[in-house]
Specification:
The chain is an alpha+beta fold and 147 residues long. 19% of the residues lie in helices and 31% in strands.
């Protein structure tokens, strides 16, 4: 999962860094291409609502959380070059990431919190889920493929 995040970030350059906090609002747009990275908490005391880390639209609009690990407010907004977005989606198709079943395997346990990377490219979809980033965030442990 980290590889895909790093690949994406190295492909897309943000035109303007934090342009200021963005007010929280529900966005109902369903574009044919988009990328979302968010945190889901399935624990007993969870409110059940995902917390956004990053959302990227095909026109280059990017919204990201100040908290890059657990997400949520405050959010910032910037722009990426739409041509770079298109190049990134072409790269994903050429690398055949949508057909690699091991990328869609979930890596988390019951009642846990985990990070989701969801990529939609027309009829192609990829959803990766892992608790590794959250488990390793404090620096006190390392999550492996066995848990």
């Amino acid at each position: 999962m980290r590889f895909l995040i790093m690949l994406f970030l190295s492909t897309i350059s943000v035109a303007s860094s934090a342009t200021g906090a963005v007010q929280s609002k529900s966005i109902q747009i369903r574009p044919t291409q988009d990328i979302s990275i968010y945190v889901v908490s399935d624990g007993l005391f969870s409110d059940g609502r995902p917390k956004a880390l990053v959302r990227i639209w095909p026109d280059g609009r990017i919204i990201w959380s100040r908290n890059g690990v657990s997400g949520g407010e405050p959010f910032f907004e910037g722009r990426a070059n739409p041509q770079k977005m298109e190049e990134f989606f072409h790269l994903l198709q050429s690398e055949q990431v949508y057909s690699k079943k091991n990328l869609s395997r979930s890596y988390y346990g019951p009642d846990s919190s985990f990070t989701v990377i969801r990529i939609n490219d027309g009829n192609l979809h990829l959803k990766m889920e892992s608790w590794h980033e959250l488990s390793e965030a404090g620096g006190g442990g390392v999550a492996t493929s066995g848990g």
